[in-house]
Amino acid sequence: MPRRTIALVALLSLFSSATACGGGRATREDCRQILDRLVDLELQERGFRDPALAARWRAQAEAAHAAELAACEGQRIPRTALACVQAAASSEEISHRCLR
Predict the structure, then answer these.
(1) Domain coverage including residue 54
(2) Which of 17, 43, 86, 88 could cross-link to 93 by cystine, CB 3.0-4.6 Å?
(3) In whole angstroms, what is the distance from residue 70 CA to residue 11 CA?
């Protein structure tokens, strides 16, 4: 599965993250943090470490997934999801563990 698709799937999986154990509603900044972390992990997995490239990719991802970011805002998100996203070692970990 292409990395961009993984990022999109992970972001969309936020919609199914409502849990009985609580949480809150995702803000636009929460959604951007998730997408930014996915971009950072994708670059790391490909061996890129250039901060300028990361900034450019984040801007491109935000533009490409503007509709998903807008739809993400206001969705239920588990309390621990953002901390998990920041600690994740791979994009797959985000989609399979953090946002479930």
Answers:
(1) 3-15+23-98
(2) 88
(3) 11
